[in-house]
Amino acid sequence: LSMWSAVPAGPPDPILGISEAFKADKDPRRINLGVGAYRDENGKPYVLNAVKKAEEKITAAKLDKEYLPITGLAGFTNNAAKLAYGANSVPRNQNAIAVTQSISGTGALRIGGAFLARHYPHSKTIYVPSPTWGNHIPLFKDSGLEVKFYRYFDKKTVGLDFEGLKEDLKNAPEGAIVLLHACAHNPTGVDPTQSQWKEISNIVAEKKLFPFFDMAYQGFASGSTDYDAFAVRYFVSQGHQIALSQSFAKNMGLYGERVGAFSLTTADEEERKRVDSQLKIIVRPMYSNPPLHGAHIANTILSDPELYKEWEGEVKGMADRIINMRERLYQLLNKEFQTPGEWSHVKSQIGMFSFTGLNTEQCKALAEKAHIYMTMDGRISMAGLNGSNIEYFAQSVDAAVR
Ligand code: PLP
């Protein structure tokens, strides 16, 4: 008898399952709207020019392959914090941001979860939006936190349930941790407005909640890295201490390189050093130290003014292409096909994803009849749409809802 004969088969990952069904479908019209990775106008993965040029510089510099320190490449973490908090951030100028490189956004969230489970004095409960990125839930549970939900999405308006959100945060126990998507909420594509963020900040202050920002899409939502950092910077300006997860997967297209950062704002440099020492104690037994290559790429882009400029243009290019697809899809559904239903949310939502409002049955019909693959909650990756397939997609949605 094998040691593992009693191990039950786990459910397949819902998103990777979609990619497999897509690969098995040989119809030329097939479209994969499941995976959250950018595709160019030809439906192909996109390596940014800024990344290619940074790699050329790195190759020319003939760097060695020595280990990085436990918290990663110092130039990179410093530049990552500058990108998120802004060049003039008060805690940054006071040397009071504790930051470590991480295995992309997922690893940053995991380090954050572990740090809070071990050192946050007021609660072991984290409130996440309903719905949220599916991985948040097992990730925080495995970090040692209890996961609860606050209302976020209103099915009726296909928009933000702001009253529900406020009520749930007001009713959360004092001191609880609250996970906030900094921009481009996944999976809904619905973000609070700036004035709503201000109200959320007030509730977080009143209830002494601890804000943990997940910023996986800085620049990818609006096209501007400053605009997308509004919530993070506003909370810091209001005197909140925050935790922050950053990912360079989407905004630099570095998905498989696994480049990210986790940071905490602290009271002063002395406290920051103590927190840093504990971040090292969390990271060391998990993976010793982070990978080198992607951090060099991101750091080269962030520290070279010309590459930085080129990168900013390319981030904006990706965001703009998605925004154009939203506009086009809205025009097709609302005007050309006069598809039953209200479709303005397609336009008002932001970032990689759109919650279409399609139900499970309609999603299944799209897969079976039209070879169009998306998650069964009706979420589509806007980046999977382009000039060649968007009409077919809209036509198929039209058929599915009639
Ligand atoms: N957080 C959110 C909300 C995401 O959508 C993602 C990726 O889809 C991540 C974090 C982490 O991604 P990665 O680990 O690839 O940086």
TrEMBL record:
In eukaryotes there are cytoplasmic, mitochondrial and chloroplastic isozymes. Residues 31-396 form the Aminotransferase class I/classII large domain. One of its GO terms (cellular component) is mitochondrion. GO terms for molecular function: L-aspartate:2-oxoglutarate aminotransferase activity; pyridoxal phosphate binding. Its EC number is 2.6.1.1. Homodimer. This is Aspartate aminotransferase. It catalyses: L-aspartate + 2-oxoglutarate = oxaloacetate + L-glutamate. Keywords: Aminotransferase, Pyridoxal phosphate, Transferase. InterPro entries: Aminotransferase_I/II_large, Asp_trans, NHTrfase_class1_PyrdxlP-BS, PyrdxlP-dep_Trfase, PyrdxlP-dep_Trfase_major, PyrdxlP-dep_Trfase_small. The lineage of its organism: Eukaryota, Fungi, Dikarya, Basidiomycota, Agaricomycotina. One of its GO terms (biological process) is L-aspartate catabolic process. Its cofactor is pyridoxal 5'-phosphate. NCBIfam families: PRK09257.1. Gene3D superfamilies: Aspartate Aminotransferase, domain 1 (3.90.1150.10), Type I PLP-dependent aspartate aminotransferase-like (Major domain) (3.40.640.10).
